[in-house]
Amino acid sequence: MESVPAVVTPALTPRGAGRPVGSRSSYHAALEHQIRNLTGVKGTLAVDPLLRPAECCTLLQISYSTLRKRITEGVLRASRTTQKKGGHLRIRFSDLRKFVADSAVRDE
């Protein structure tokens, strides 16, 4: 079984190459694997889990303030838990995946 690092990082770029080594699909597969490990869900049950902002920040390697900024700008969709549960932010994995794909297209 393939081992995945604790934090999924994009492949490093060799000096002067200009593009990351490895495919985008392998990056997304590693990201999905990391999500399944973080949420404790195995197999096909991890279709669209709700993630905490801290988990998203760890996966994307961005700060919490940057994540909040993207949510308030409407670039990344998030929902809130009920007021009885504190009204905390939760981000669907599918929305996070779309955000990563859109930002990768913008960067190219």
Write the layout of secondary structure elements.
Elements: H1 24-39, E1 50-51, H2 53-60, H3 64-73, E2 79-80, E3 89-92, H4 93-107
Oligomeric state:
single chain
Please trace the helix and strand order, writing H or E for each element.
HEHHEEH
Report how far the terminal alpha carbons are from each other: 32 Å
Largest sheet report: 3 strands, antiparallel
Report strand %.
Answer: 5-15%
Strand tally: 3
Question: Could you characterize the architecture of this molecule?
Answer:
The chain is mostly helical and about 110 residues long. It has one domain (about 25-105). Helices cover about 45% and strands about 5% of the residues. It contains four helices and three strands. It has helices spanning about 25-40, 55-60, 65-75, 95-105; strands spanning about 50, 80, 90. It has a three-stranded antiparallel β-sheet. The longest helix is centred in the N-terminal third of the chain and has 16 residues, at about 25-40. The radius of gyration is 15 Å and the shape is globular. The model is unreliable at about 5-20 (pLDDT under 50).
